[in-house]
Amino acid sequence: MDQVTVTINGTQVSVPRGTTILDAAKKIGINIPTLCYCPDVGCGVPNKPASCRICLVEATGIRPRPILAPACATPIERDGIVVSTNSTRALKARRTVLELLLSDHPKACLVCTKNQECELQKLAAEFGISEIEYQGESNRFPIDESSNAIMRDLSKCIMCRRCETVCNKVQTVGALTGYGRGFSAKVGTASMVPLADTSCTFCGQCVNACPVGAISGISYVKKVWSALNDPSKTVIVQTAPAVRVAIGQEFGFEPGKPVTKKLVAGLRALGFNKVFDTNFSADLTIMEEANELVNRIKENKNLPILTSCCPGWINFIEHNFPDLLHIPSSCKSPQQMFGAIAKSYYAEKIGVKPADLIVVSIMPCQAKKYEAARPEFEHDGVRDVDYIITTRELCKMFREAGINLGNMPDDEYDSPLGESTGAADIFGVTGGVLEAALRTAYFFINGKNLDGDAINFRAVRGLSGVKEAKVEVAPGMIINVAAASGLGNARKVLEMVRKDPKRFQAIEIMACPGGCINGGGQPFIHGQTDQLLKRMQGLYSEDERKTLRMSHENPDIKKLYDEYLGSYGSEKAHHLLHTNYHQK
Amino acid sequence: MCGKKLSEGAAAKFAELDAFIDGLGIDLEDARRRGRLIQILHRAQDIFGYLPREVQAHVAKKLLLPESAVSGVVSFYNYFTTTPKGKYCINVCLGTACYVKGSEKVLSEIERVLGVKADTVPTADGLFSISALRCVGACGLAPVMVINGKVYGKVTPAKAVEIVNEYKKLG
Fold it and tell me: Cα A11 to chain center, whole Å?
């Protein structure tokens, strides 16, 4: 490729023509501060509106005179350009930019949800800001807590527009837009209506993208503390698959390292009466969903079947594809199946009234908060799942309680809702639910298990946005499957289905790019997508570690059907484990 | 263009807007269709008098765009308004030439007489709304006032009130 040479802070570096100053500097280990710029807000889409100007550097050789140029958006187009990232002029300009940003920011860091994780706060510390020279008008907006999942505090918005990029370009949800102009401009919704009245799916990718505390999750932490300290309640907890490979990094473990047993010990130390696993109900989901898949293939009806574990994705199809609402699996998500079984089967088993049994979910997700509050998931005034705590919020609870996962002993999930197979672990990564369903569907069709390595459906693994494969579910019987992650990719696949309904027979869809490992409630990765790869590897290693790797082999699931539900797809199973969808 | 309420013959107005949009022959699979928004919103505001949420949502649906995309454009341009206007829209130019010739006094006198501020709500009787604008390109006539497209030049505060009273008589 065509190379050009640039001098940055006295060091020459050769880069492909058109490389930005920021990337060239990175190549030789020179760090230039950034704020609005994010290399990857999802699916490889960068955010670089060059609007914040915090990356200003002084460049000679672009114009006749030395200029201040935004490093993130200034390409090196010719030889001989000389850049100084730390000249007096550059330093002064960057400081002015930061002080102006701070002059219109609440500076209430001590009581901000983003305290110690805020990129603006970090810059202020790095720049050694001790006073703000500019005192003037500042924007104040009411806080939007209209939804039960996502909160927006626009007074803190710095107009980096990362949320707008991820909402529109990656997820194609289109709930957010730049609104107004000039000083009072902010990222808003259509006509500035509350978020709950928009097409928002609550995927939470905007929460992950926000560098400051302008968008965050609605917190149920206080309610969980109250429940844990209420002696009249039995409080049980379930942990989603993707949590175990993400939470460790917050306590000094390698990113992606599964810390399942420490997580169990930590939750027990918080005071939960029983520590159970969403993996258990993931296995249960597979029993029902694989049964549904096999039946639909046999009857050649309502195909392709779409997975229904992901509440962000369900919101998306309800908003955008009302004509296709007959094809998602009618299975509730594992979270809701857990809640339904806990408040019926388990409550009966331990002799506790459902109203006195509190179910808490630890989820990588914001949309799960919305899902748990859907009217369908309440019986006789009792919610199937009471409170959702995200991975990030759990980290805060652990810290508040003085629990360091690194120091916890190994512990095991409780019985009977804690046992799971490897098929359940991989629910947390794109392609995993499909793979898990195929393993059991094969058994249902052929009456025997997949042999040896055939259990690994590698064609549907990996982090690419859309994966297509042909799968032999019985000798000579091949079906076309796909797995999509990221709602923009979901839209592409659904448009394929609209055009050619026969193209696929089974499709897995996850709202977040990469699946739940990249959920809207996971520890921030700040655009470092290699961490997702590690979380993915962590989940596959959990799967391989287990002797039982197919959902139908889970002994406690067998017991649940024998003792309570009857057979797969029975009337009781339908009543407890299935749901339906509505146009929004 | 001014003084129309959404409820009055809304169906016919939407039909008129649809006919206009259909006439543009926009390819709904072309990402550049967003570029036609301003043109459509201008016409929509001509028809409805303002751009309430229902109209924005209608345009969005028609172009297969998110409602937020339409709302973002409407909120950006001063020309577009999301609140109803009076029957007569009084625009006072505050461009440089008009300003130095005393248009600010004209504006504040009209505001005083009518009892409403510029760029807020119409008068209680629904007859007038006041806006301040920048340069209508008639600097030779400064200071300039425009009522429903008709230009009045070399106005003084007293003259302006006279003109407004004429419209009041028309009702």
Answer: 40
| A289 classed as catalytic | yes
Is the complex ipTM higher than 0.90? Answer: no
DSSP 8-state symbol, A578? B
Taking CA–CA distances from B69, the nearest residue in chain A reads A177
Span A85-111, mean pLDDT?
Answer: 96
Task: Pick from A154, A189, A191 the residue to mutate for testing the B interface (most B CBs within 10 Å).
Answer: A191
pLDDT in tens, A510-547: 999 999 999 999 999 988 889 999 999 999 999 999 99
Q: Do B68 and A198 touch (CB under 8 A)?
A: yes
A329 catalytic per annotation: yes
Q: A176 touching B, CB under 8 A?
A: yes
CATH class of the A3-102 domain in this structure: alpha beta
Query: By the 8 A CB rule, do A39 and A527 touch?
Result: yes
Which CATH class for the A222-577 domain? Answer: alpha beta
Q: B75, A175: Cβ pair inside 8 Å?
A: no
Beta-strand pair A466-474/A177-179: unpaired
In angstroms, the Cα distances linking A120 to A89, A158, A370, A483 are: 21, 9, 29, 37
B66 contact residues in A (CB cutoff 8 A):
168, 173-175, 177, 190, 199
Per-residue pLDDT band for A379 (boundaries 50, 70, 90) equals confident
| CATH number belonging to domain A105-129+140-217 | 3.30.70.20
Kindly report, residue by residue over B147-168, the tens digit of the pLDDT: 998 999 999 999 999 999 999 9
